[in-house]
Amino acid sequence: MYFEDYENAKSQERNSDDVYSKPVRAGKRTYFFDVKATKGNDYYLTITESKRKIERDGKYVYDKHKIFLYKEDFEKFSEGLQEVIDYIKERCPVVEARPYDRPAAEGDENQPAGNYSDVDFDEL
Predict the structure, then answer these.
(1) pTM here?
(2) Could you tell me the residue range of the domain that residue 18 belongs to?
(3) What are the angstrom distances between the C-alpha of 43 and each of 7, 32, 39, 74, 98?
(4) Nearest partner of 38 among 20, 18, 65, judged by Cα
(5) Distance CA 63, CA 85 (A)
(6) Interval 51-104: pLDDT, tens
(7) What is the pLDDT of residues 93-115, one digit of tens each?
(8) Which of 12, 17, 32, 53 sits CB 3.0–4.6 Å from 37 for a disulfide?
(9) Which residues, at least 6 apart from 76, have a Cβ–Cβ distance to it below 8 Å?
(10) Is residue 50 part of a domain?
């Protein structure tokens, strides 16, 4: 996640109390899942998509989109979201990009042992 994403999120105009925040860096975007409280101490969720762009003068700007999700809509929202995620996964499987390949460390079950060859760069 870009440092500026998180710092700018803190400085946004706040109309309610922040209770909990979870930033998620995903490629060129950062998603913020923010739990907020109303004056009556009722919770709701805001989901913000932030994408950092560079203007012609070299300055960074953030293109942001936000939705508000209220607790009475959580179940229907999550059902609809899961349905469309399943639809997409069935028709177009997700292949997650890996930033780099590295040999699996001993006991590292999360990294598969890959097809790696020993290269002696002095020979090249």
Answers:
(1) 0.59
(2) 3-71
(3) 23, 16, 10, 12, 36
(4) 18
(5) 24
(6) 988 889 989 899 999 999 999 999 999 999 999 999 999 999 877 766 654 455
(7) 877 766 654 455 555 555 555 55
(8) 17
(9) none
(10) yes
What CATH code is carried by the domain that includes residue 51?
Answer: 3.10.450.700
Asked if residue 52 is part of any domain, the answer here is: yes
Say how many C-beta atoms besides its own lie within 10 A of residue 25's C-beta: 12
Is residue 64 in some structural domain? yes
* Longest distance between any two alpha carbons in the chain, whole Å: 71
Structural domain count, the chain: 1
CB 35 within 8 A of CB 19: yes
Which DSSP string corresponds to 64-108?
Answer: EEEEEEEGGGHHHHHHHHHHHHHHHHHHS------S---PPPTT-
